[in-house]
């Protein structure tokens, strides 16, 4: 039997971040990471730490185009001048094309500038005492607003405008207004971090705390056909139908604190129809078109080939509680319906990862039951190391080399490695199709949609466990066979150019094909879409005529430019490419568009602050609904060193002196001035050595997963260890039942002149009820505990 050797050094810094103090700044050690942190309110009444007072979103939906105006109100109720920094989300499809700032009775229209130039102008105005605002893109769905020189008593309004295209799926239109950016896990050092990375270092409120600013949302729907129903799965909405084609929607007063989850607005048209055809717009030398082609009817495949599935399940701290229970429900519904000819594997990841089996398993009832048992025991904790999990998943052997593989990822997406993930998926495009499931009320849709788009699969968002069965059924229906494959676009008689997308992958979802582009001359000719369904060749012809030109379609220029930017920049293509960077910058400047390389800046030319004092505050964000403190600082305060290990053989592991650990106490509560939040040094209080491990398991014992489990157990038990252990070694035995749950914790030798039950009873209460191994494994471990002088 092979030995399992694992060394864990639990050091004086944090796996994700501190529970009450800010992550390290640039003056601290280079190994500190760019972690989010919990908001600590200052006792200084001179500084208003919560300058954002309200956000209002006003949405006008006309046909398939949504025009959105977002108004943020900042007010300084303190006695010092402020610079406010606010991180907020945007739609992944948003073409942000305008901003203005109102200071008193003065309205300043923002200019689009190259990003570094906009930042330079803003900093100059800030230092000169001029009120200024700067809007930057940190991710395609994460924006940063800076507002400088908000004087005491000031109310400053910043309004931004964007447009986006609504594409129905299964005859259902959906508009999503994101309200909060979830905390991002990162392992990047704070020292030397770029501006596009440092936004991650942001304050958050505690789990369950309401947002500190009010939120208003209203929408008006003007449909080209009669409306059938308008609803929301996320918020209580008041819907007023003016007539068959017009409806107004608003949040009631009870939802003024509803900015802790995405607003999801859904509607259907009468008789489940969808609006298709051609829209034409533009002026001057450029003319734009948008074509929506109704998809073919789905045909049942004559013979569905077997599939090899790899399910990747995020079990990190941000998934703890409601999100992981939603993920379990989703995977239960998908796994339960796999056919005997299919094969599968499950990879669980947080700070480390482990797999259900070294190679894919046949989808027998016994194997599915085993997988569901392992899925059911997951609790959520630790970091979110997505990239190593993806690499491991793509490297797993298949049950058979001749069948197609489908990778299914279930995560909230709270990481900052979107581009790296996209690159990795693109490198394995011929290995598998990727389907991504966003789990939760405010997921990172840029990551979810990007992984699916580059993996030529489909994205899904599961808001709650109740939606899981229907979405699982939809996924299984999609993968039986493409709705339309080998798609080609032609434009006979129509002088189209710069058409996006240049290549259309197989269509799985029942949604229209969307083509955007430019054209020369008079509108004439046809747009022809061909492909193949389960019944043979498919062809759809759309006539282009002068009657389709409408001044109301001016947003088409923004939508075309945004689609072009997405292909060049959003999915990682622009990194390292000077040509792509130059083209994205030119698109942003030409079409007045916020991009990775262009920003909006508005400056009031009056000098309003005469002295040099200005206080910078970061607006704290609420945790998304259902997300626990573990997403920020609730995970154990430990760092785990690289492991040295030999994987144990199936059937059990035995080791003598197999593990050595040094535990640290979580930091005591710290009263830190809000102006200068420092990290706290953590001192080791006990050392723990695992002297014997006897575990029997059907699955291989994975060292990384065992590391995470024991780390969390130590965090729960630390008060017992610190209070009951002297400088002599004490031995403790932890026994596990056949399901892998701890059933007994006992001290094997007494304290000096005392009863062993003082430590054993405390450990039993602290560990046993919450400790479970990631495998169905029984046996025991014996550890010795010694106080560190």
Map the helices and strands.
Elements: E1 6-7, E2 37-38, E3 52-62, E4 65-75, E5 82-89, E6 95-103, E7 106-109, E8 111-114, H1 115-128, E9 130-139, E10 142-150, E11 155-165, E12 172-177, H2 195-198, E13 203-204, E14 214-222, E15 227-231, E16 238-243, E17 246-250, E18 263-269, E19 277-281, E20 287-293, E21 307-314, H3 322-335, E22 343-349, E23 353-355, E24 361-362, H4 365-376, H5 386-395, E25 404-411, H6 418-427, E26 433-439, H7 445-454, E27 459-462, H8 468-480, E28 485-490, E29 496-500, E30 513-519, E31 526-533, E32 536-543, H9 556-570, H10 578-590, E33 598-607, E34 615-618, E35 653-664, E36 684-697, H11 703-724, E37 730-736, E38 742-747, H12 757-768, E39 777-787
Parallel strand pairs: 1-35, 2-13, 3-14, 5-34, 21-22, 21-25, 25-26, 26-27
Antiparallel strand pairs: 3-4, 4-11, 5-10, 6-7, 6-11, 8-33, 9-10, 9-33, 12-18, 14-17, 15-18, 16-17, 19-20, 20-30, 22-23, 22-24, 28-31, 29-30, 31-32, 35-36, 36-39, 37-38, 37-39
Helix pairs in contact: 3-4, 3-8, 5-6, 6-7, 9-10, 11-12
């Amino acid at each position: 039997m092979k030995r399992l050797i694992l060394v864990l050094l639990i050091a004086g810094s944090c796996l994700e971040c501190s529970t009450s103090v800010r992550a390290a700044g640039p003056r601290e050690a280079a190994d500190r990471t760019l972690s989010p942190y919990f908001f600590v309110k200052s006792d200084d009444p001179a500084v208003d730490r919560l300058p954002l007072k309200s956000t209002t979103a006003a949405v006008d939906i006309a046909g398939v185009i949504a025009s959105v105006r977002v108004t943020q109100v900042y007010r300084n109720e303190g006695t010092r001048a402020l610079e406010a920094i606010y991180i907020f989300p945007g739609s992944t499809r948003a073409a942000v094309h305008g901003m203005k700032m109102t200071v008193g009775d003065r309205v300043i229209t923002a200019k689009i500038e190259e990003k570094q130039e906009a930042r330079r102008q803003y900093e100059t105005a800030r230092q000169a005492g001029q009120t200024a605002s700067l809007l930057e893109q940190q991710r395609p769905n994460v924006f940063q607003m800076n507002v400088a020189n908000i004087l005491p008593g000031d109310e400053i309004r910043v309004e931004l405008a964007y447009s986006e295209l609504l594409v129905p799926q299964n005859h259902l239109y959906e508009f999503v207004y994101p309200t909060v950016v979830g905390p991002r896990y990162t392992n990047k050092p704070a020292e030397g971090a770029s501006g596009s990375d440092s936004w991650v270092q942001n304050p958050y409120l505690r789990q369950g705390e309401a947002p500190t600013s009010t939120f208003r949302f209203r929408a008006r729907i003007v449909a080209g056909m009669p409306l059938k129903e308008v609803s929301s799965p996320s918020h209580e909405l008041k819907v007023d139908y003016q007539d068959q084609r017009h409806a107004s929607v608003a949040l009631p007063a009870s939802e003024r604190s509803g900015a802790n989850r995405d607003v999801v607005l859904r509607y259907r048209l009468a008789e489940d129809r969808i609006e298709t055809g051609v829209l034409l717009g533009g002026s001057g030398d450029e003319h734009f078109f948008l074509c929506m082609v109704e998809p073919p009817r789905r045909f049942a495949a004559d013979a569905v080939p077997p599939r090899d599935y790899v399910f990747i399940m995020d079990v990190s701290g941000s998934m703890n509680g409601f999100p992981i229970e939603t993920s379990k429900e989703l995977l239960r519904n998908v796994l339960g319906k796999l056919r005997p000819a299919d094969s599968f594997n499950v990879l669980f990841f947080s700070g480390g990862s482990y797999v259900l089996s070294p190679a894919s398993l046949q989808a027998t009832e016994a194997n599915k039951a085993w997988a569901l048992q392992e899925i059911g025991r997951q609790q959520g904790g630790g970091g979110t190391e997505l990239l190593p999990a993806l690499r491991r998943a793509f490297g797993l052997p298949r049950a058979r080399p001749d069948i197609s593989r489908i990778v299914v990822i279930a995560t909230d997406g709270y990481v900052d490695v979107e581009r790296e993930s996209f690159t990795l998926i693109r490198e394995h495009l011929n290995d598998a199709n990727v389907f991504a499931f966003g789990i939760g009320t405010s997921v990172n849709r840029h990551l979810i949609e990007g992984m699916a788009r580059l993996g030529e699969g489909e994205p899904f968002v599961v808001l709650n466990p109740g939606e899981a069965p229907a979405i699982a059924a939809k996924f299984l229906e999609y993968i039986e066979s493409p709705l339309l494959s080998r798609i080609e676009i032609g434009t006979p008689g129509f002088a189209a150019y710069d058409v996006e997308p240049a290549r259309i992958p197989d269509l799985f979802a029942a949604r229209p094909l969307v083509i955007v582009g430019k054209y020369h001359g008079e509108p004439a000719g046809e747009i022809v879409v061909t492909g193949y369904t389960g019944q043979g060749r498919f062809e759809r012809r759309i006539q282009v005529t002068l009657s389709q030109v409408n001044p109301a379609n001016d947003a088409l220029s923004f939508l075309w430019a945004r689609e072009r930017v997405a292909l060049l920049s959003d999915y990682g293509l622009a990194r390292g490419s000077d040509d792509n960077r130059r083209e994205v910058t030119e698109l942003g400047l030409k079409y007045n568009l916020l991009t990775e390389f262009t920003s909006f800046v508005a400056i009031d030319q009056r000098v309003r602050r005469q002295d040099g004092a200005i206080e910078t505050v970061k607006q704290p964000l609420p945790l998304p609904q259902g997300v626990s403190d573990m997403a920020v600082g609730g995970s154990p305060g430990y760092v785990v060193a690289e492991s040295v290990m030999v994987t144990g053989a199936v059937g059990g592991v035995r080791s003598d002196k197999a593990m050595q650990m040094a535990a640290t106490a979580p930091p005591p509560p710290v009263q830190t001035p809000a102006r200068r939040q420092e990290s706290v040094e953590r001192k080791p209080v006990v050392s723990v050595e695992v002297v014997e491990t006897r575990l029997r398991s059907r699955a291989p014992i994975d060292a990384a997963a065992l590391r995470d489990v024991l780390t969390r157990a130590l965090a729960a038990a630390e008060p017992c260890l610190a209070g009951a252990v002297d400088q002599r070694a004490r031995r403790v035995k932890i026994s596990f039942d056949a399901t892998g749950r701890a059933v007994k914790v006992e001290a094997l030798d007494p304290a000096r002149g005392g009863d062993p039950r003082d430590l054993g009873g405390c450990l039993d209460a602290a560990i046993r009820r919450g400790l479970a191994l990631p495998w169905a494994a029984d046996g025991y471990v014996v550890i010795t505990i010694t106080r560190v002088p």
